[in-house]
Amino acid sequence: NWLKQSLYLDAPAYAGQPITAIVEVVRLRPEKHLVNLRGACTTTGATVCTGESLVLAQNMPETGGKE
Length: 67
What we know:
The protein is mainly β. The protein has one domain (2-56): Hotdog Thioesterase (Thiol Ester Dehydrase, Chain A). The protein has strands at residues 2-9, 20-29, 34-43, 46-56. The chain has a 4-stranded antiparallel β-sheet, with no helix packed on it. A hairpin with a 4-residue loop joins strand 2 (20-29) and strand 3 (34-43). It is elongated. The two termini are 20 Å apart.
């Protein structure tokens, strides 16, 4: 479940253009089943969008590790 998302459109992307998406897990909070994500989409060397999300992850195991 997406709880919050911000998306910034930095440059245009056109139909037929290949786009690469990269998503990074920024923070895990297993005790609350929350995951913070940061992402970016690029095409031909230009960043077309960036953003951050807060996701409620169902059935997330508690690892006891770092956040």
